[in-house]
Write a structure and sequence with these properties.
44% of the residues lie in helices and 19% in strands. It has nine helices and twelve strands. The strands form three sheets. A five-stranded parallel beta sheet has the order 2-1-3-4-5, sandwiched between helices. Strands 6-7-8-9 form a four-stranded antiparallel beta sheet, with helices on one face. The radius of gyration is 21 Å and the shape is elongated.
Length: 257
């Protein structure tokens, strides 16, 4: 009986490890701001993100880490994107791995070449983080039968419990209603705690770059969030203002609740 359980644990561990491996996404992009934007957007969806700033490092990570998907820029220092795409497809163990080209080169010839070299999708810059995440998840699902969800969609800490799948928030075991945008902003904060974000960054990452709203929109939604989750919204402990910069979700304050 003990041996059977041991084998079962081993099989479960192997399956869990396989799921973790399949959730790896490699971003090969030389622009630091774009790499950071992609990292934040993809990690918010429960994906593990690896990053490379040039082609040589990108190829090394492909071979060492065996990512589930590659997001690839074309105009890279050293080895270019088309050559990286060709080399990835030349490796037998990587033929199943989706490649999403993300480039400022939007001409039809580039798209055709990318497809011929084995790219599964082609996105152009500037891009919507939401649209790109949707493309990544569709490619993961098509390749692996697994959208790469995080193991748990429940956040529990202190007096707050958030069910991300059901869009439900409970504070002190009492359900609290949020608008969709308020919920998305809260989700972003709790998934990126103890980091300061400027208003412009929050607009880009939560509202999306194609939504034309003023930075003060963030302030309005932060005030609404505070009324719902703070003990005293006039003296906030959770969503704190960093003067002259922006806002931060202070997760440490939940430990005292």
């Amino acid at each position: 009986m003990w041996r059977c359980r041991a084998r079962s644990r081993g099989a479960n561990a192997a399956m869990a490890e396989s799921r973790r491996e399949r959730r790896k996404v490699l971003v090969i992009e030389d622009e630091r701001d774009i790499r950071e934007l992609l990292r934040i957007a993809l990690e918010a969806e429960g994906l593990q993100v690896l990053a490379a700033e040039d082609g040589e490092l990108g190829l090394a990570l492909v071979r060492r880490e065996r990512p589930a998907l590659v997001v690839l820029d074309l105009m890279l220092p050293g080895v270019g994107g088309f050559e990286i795409c060709r080399r990835i497809r030349a490796e037998e163990s990587m033929t199943r791995v989706p490649i999403l080209i993300l480039s400022a080169r939007s001409g039809e010839p580039d798209k055709i070449v990318g497809r011929e070299l084995g790219a599964d999708d082609y996105g152009t810059k500037p891009f919507s983080p939401r649209e790109l995440v949707a493309r990544v998840r569709a490619l993961l699902r098509r390749a692996w039968g697994d959208p790469g969800e995080a193991p748990s969609e429940i956040y529990r800490k202190g007096s707050i419990e958030i069910d991300f799948s059901a869009y439900e928030v409970r504070i002190d075991n009492q359900r609290v209603e949020f608008s969709l945008r308020e919920f998305e902003l809260l989700r972003f904060f709790v998934k990126h705690p103890n980091r300061v974000y400027e208003r412009g960054q929050l607009l880009e990452l939560v509202w999306g770059p194609d939504t034309f709203v003023e930075p003060r929109t963030v302030d309005v939604h932060v005030r609404r969030l505070r009324r719902r989750i703070e003990r005293d919204d006039a003296d906030p402990e959770l969503i704190v203002t960093v003067r002259g910069v922006g806002y931060m979700f202070n997760e440490r304050s939940l430990e005292a609740r």
